Amino acid sequence: MIKHIGVPTLLRVVLGIIFLAHGISKLQMGLGNVEAWFSSMGVPGFMAYVAAFVELAGGILLIVGLFTRVVSALFIVLMLGAIVTVKLSSGLLGHDQAAGYELELSLVLVSIYLLASGPAALSLDHLIFNKRRSA
């Protein structure tokens, strides 16, 4: 079954679901609370809104396969920012109660793959942009 769906499609959809879930989680916590949490870590509070929007909208776009390369690039920037500003001091695997950056690094690598590979056969990108090329 995976062969018929294709690994790039599977990676894209799962990555989209992960980011969508993180965006929904931020909404459920309340963006004001997320803003305060970001500020307490030394990250500008407005980035809570940016992160939530990118995760929500980007997750949905990846699930349907629209603007895959753009969204993947945004996810790379978002995750590298999280690693550098928050997670780096905890190390790869973390310590005590602080999580490491292994998840963010994995998400960056999947995003790099999607950025480099381009639209999968089962995506709106493929459907839309292949029609434009053939017209």
From TrEMBL:
<feature type="transmembrane region" description="Helical">
    <location>
        <begin position="74"/>
        <end position="93"/>
    </location>
</feature>
<feature type="transmembrane region" description="Helical">
    <location>
        <begin position="105"/>
        <end position="124"/>
    </location>
</feature>
<feature type="transmembrane region" description="Helical">
    <location>
        <begin position="7"/>
        <end position="25"/>
    </location>
</feature>
<dbReference type="InterPro" id="IPR032808">
    <property type="entry name" value="DoxX"/>
</dbReference>
<comment type="similarity">
    <text>Belongs to the DoxX family.</text>
</comment>
<keyword id="KW-1133">Transmembrane helix</keyword>
<dbReference type="Pfam" id="PF07681">
    <property type="entry name" value="DoxX"/>
</dbReference>
<keyword id="KW-0472">Membrane</keyword>
<keyword id="KW-0812">Transmembrane</keyword>
<feature type="transmembrane region" description="Helical">
    <location>
        <begin position="45"/>
        <end position="67"/>
    </location>
</feature>
<dbReference type="InterPro" id="IPR051907">
    <property type="entry name" value="DoxX-like_oxidoreductase"/>
</dbReference>
<protein>
    <submittedName>
        <fullName>DoxX family protein</fullName>
    </submittedName>
</protein>
<keyword id="KW-1003">Cell membrane</keyword>
